[in-house]
Design a protein that fits this description.
The structure is a homooctamer. Chain A is of the alpha+beta class. Chain A contains 5 helices and 5 strands. A 4-stranded antiparallel beta sheet of chain A has the order 3-4-2-5. β1 of chain A pairs antiparallel with β1 of chain B, so a sheet runs across the interface.
Chain lengths: ~150, ~150, ~150, ~150, ~150, ~150, ~150, ~150
């Protein structure tokens, strides 16, 4: 990945709806070059998709952070993939520390959080769950500094 | 927010680069309606932006999760905003539990994580920091179920 | 719930033995209005009952706070309802954090606390119990600010 | 406190709005006896007041449980009394364990909880705060078994 | 227990080998009175025995403090009594907090501590063990202030 | 310390009021030998004193276990000696783990425990205190197995 | 072990490739004496081997520290020996505290750490695992001060 | 680093006193090649030194593991380097988790551990210390699998 790739990715992270022509102007290459680079970055699995950032608290959603310890003899990854199937699950990481998994879920209202926790506790291989709620979100992006 | 708004947001979350015409076909209304709805959802602060999802581990980045306890007498929000200024910071939440803030950062390599932790520890109002590293990311999206 | 409802509830929280006539004078409406409003608030489940606040430490009672982790595969709510059947149980909440339930019990004397903890540990679905004792109660009310 | 006192207190805990005549019938003594006993129990500080139990989650309130460690050199009781002055504070106990105080607050909505936590953190003598939210209340009474 | 009982117990706690005649002189009563009081205090179970305080670190012994969580469904007291049968066990308390039992053991040397911990872990009903070693004993008495 | 020393110490631990003549009979040596050995063991600091074991819960006393973290820059031993001056302090150990000191205190009643904790918190060099109460004592001796 | 033994061991710890002649010069005895002493120290099991210290982070290796709680009924030592068979395991200690074993492993890269943790979790008798990663090694030697 | 480098390092890790000639025979190259490769690996900082592994418990040494939280505003690395100057310090790592540093020290006897902990607590920038002792060492090497 060279400096041009990085420039294009920076543009796409900031505003994914911009046309390749617009991006080409910004980074100072032809539209064809941008198009070709994006194609290659997508094929290499670096670009995974284009999404829209919503203000979820404006939508009345509550962000739930659960840390999960899996039972001995169960694969952390397999348990994580089962949790990934729940529609409230946004991020699932295998992490260091006392717990094996950290999950970020978006729930429709305060009451739903308890239900989601109970559902996670029912998944096979889950040993214990530590749940915290987000009181206020100060920043929430997926954009990384390249 | 009615059912049409939700349909449009679902489309935009799945593929933010689609044209309003394409989205209009998918949800069964005119392009003008989609355009107008998106304009209104943006004005109301529900749509915050359009971004590109990158596979950060493919880029050699390490995800760092820090939990921060702020000193008594300091505003959690003010400390959170200072951390938000660091270019590695992606998500910052004021959370329940022993720690006040949970921060997700993307660092260029294992070694950089120690540096980021030291920088967070230097911010005024930070009392203590608990850092964990992501060993493997199983899912990472901002897309929510509407 | 309008401002009049709130005024009546404030009066009832402060002194539940006052007659509707007395309350009517305080809030400046007719006795019939108070009576009707209380009836409606009771039917809507907002008023749950009228009770007397006792100074339990004056009665030689010790307040026990237990936090309970339930076993995976057991419903937190079902376990909580079993604990609610114990006559020492006053408050039972499903909470965030490492433990699932927080229970406040009133025990007749220091020695009884150990017995209550053993009884809670015997309830099916209880995984572990963290017990703390109240050394001194500084305030204890159910009255909320409306 | 004899068995008759206990019977009267049981009645008053169950329904504090009942007249002394009604209570006298229930426990099998004269109204004058009930009246005199209640007067004495109030003078001895055993009866602290009469209140109305509201379903706070029905009112959109969120129950916040904070555990507070006080700084060395500060009186736990003095810090507790300062917290008692906040209108959201219902119960404040000096407890065993790592934290010195356990506080139960009733907040008008999810967002208010963060504000209350920040306010508690600003009180002089507060060293650190561990906040948990109630996801669901299974039982909430002050009634004790006599 | 009156003031004379307390005076006699204070003397016996300070030097249990003193004759009743010596104690009688110290507290200003006849030897017969001391003898009679000691007999009664022993019968009431207040005096449990007379022992010699040894400097165990001088004897090369290491003091081990284990905190034990018992499994749900097992009586804390029964598990505690099983541990009491081990010859290294000096004190066993059912305590508040995350763990159910706190045990103080005296082991002949550093290496023996690991063996004692393994033995405690093998007792039925023991769920988990947290072991700490005493680095230095600053005070160790059973004498209480009456 | 030879086998005879051990035999004598075993006798003295079991019943410190026994005469040297009685002990001499038990261990099969002359009274003069016992007397001489006890003198030497006392001079070497192995025998520290003779005391009487009281059933403190029978006396209405509550056993308080506090774990204390000292501030950086303060000597754990100096802080421990300050706590040793409190009349409620029985045992004080410098221990491994998160806390530096473990203190066992005997308090006259439940209410006194809170006062003792507040007094410990006021001692210079004390950073934080974790207090637990004994619910029931299963065994409490200083006797060690020689 | 006398002072000469210590001198020889100090030399060997500092530079194990030095010839006995060189060491003899350094410590001021004959080569034969050094040779004989080393032979005896090896026979007594004090010298366990001669190794080369590598800068593992220079080799791209990540140091993983896992703390392991073993299940009740399983020998800590037996579980530790199973973990010792893994080629990544460098140091395994039976330790005090909440966890029974502390393991230091050297893994070829960040990603391998998760795999090693999963493998440890699969070993029979392992109850739970707390994993931490080394962000930077400041010192790493086996050399002790004699 | 190619396969030959790895082979040579494997030999040197297993027995650092072997001559280059012996190593050359084992790996099937000339002595000159081994000599040259070792020179290059040393210059690149991969080979840091040659040491002798001692059985420290055989020498009566106790292994102490301390975890250290540094104060906000202090560099973890600077504090770590100060600890590295203590002659008991063997390994010092900047780690993830609640604590910033993990230190392994070798102390001459149980009693010395308390002294070392007190010394660490006195170093500027140290906020708190969690100390554990090794009860038994199951494996202790620096050898890594290449």
């Amino acid at each position: 990945m060279d400096e041009l790739d990085k420039k294009i990715l920076r543009e796409l992270q900031l505003h994914s709806r911009n046309s390749f022509t617009k991006i080409a102007q910004e980074v100072g290459v032809t539209t064809a070059t941008v198009s070709e680079r994006v194609k290659r970055l997508t094929e290499k699995g670096i670009i995974c998709g284009y999404t829209t950032i919503l203000n979820t608290s404006e939508l009345g959603m509550v962000t739930l952070i659960t840390k999960i310890k899996t039972k001995p003899g169960y694969s952390v990854e397999v348990v994580g993939k089962r949790i990934a199937e729940m529609e409230e699950s946004c991020c699932i990481h295998h992490v260091t520390g006392v717990f094996d998994l950290m999950v970020i879920s978006k729930c429709t209202g305060h009451g739903k959080c308890g239900v989601v926790i109970e559902q996670i506790k029912e998944i096979e291989g889950v040993d214990s769950v530590n749940a915290e709620l987000v009181l206020k979100t100060i920043k929430e992006e997926l954009k990384v500094s390249l």
